[in-house]
Amino acid sequence: DALSPARLDPDATIQLSGTIENTGTSEWTAVQAYLVMARSPFTTRDQVEAVATDDTTYIGDRIITPGLFDEVGDLEPGESASFDLEVPLAEVGV
After folding, report:
1. What does the buried/exposed string (b/e) look like for 69-94 if buried means 16 or more CB atoms within 10 Å of the residue's CB?
2. Is 75 helix (H, G, I), strand (E, B) or coil?
3. pLDDT tens for each residue of 2-17
4. What domain of life (predicted)?
5. Paired residues of 73 in beta bridges
6. What is the dihedral of CA 19, 72, 2, 9, to 10 degrees?
7. Are 67 and 54 in contact (CB under 8 A)?
């Protein structure tokens, strides 16, 4: 739903928020939301389209440092939940 800042200064904190929806038929348990960051920028439209449409395309590494991901909880089919992440750029390794 939201991603900021638009420009990453060395002391920036990446803020990401959104909604997770269980569109399946089984309960999801212990759902977590992570920031995923590619080690190098996508530079072509084909790269962007590939990550948007293919579940097997590498999109980056999850930031798994405790406290930098959101413990969303369990989601029954049809349920949704919001998440909010704040990750200092220094933790990303760019």
Report:
1. bbebeebeeeeebebebebebeebee
2. strand
3. 888 888 888 899 999 9
4. Bacteria
5. 31
6. -160
7. no
Place of tokens 């996508």: 42
pLDDT in tens, 14-54: 999 999 999 999 999 999 999 988 877 888 898 888 877 87
35: its two tokens: 């920031």
Cα–Cα distance, 41 to 18 (Å, whole number): 22
Check whether 65 has a pLDDT greater than 80.
yes
Q: Is residue 68 exposed (0-12), middle (13-18) or buried (19+ Cβ within 10 Å)? A: middle
Q: Given the structure tokens 């590939």, which residue do they identify?
A: 50
Write the DSSP string, 3-70.
EE-SS--TT-EEEEEEEEE--SSS-EEEEEE--EE-SS---SHHHHHHHHH-TTS---EE---TTSSE
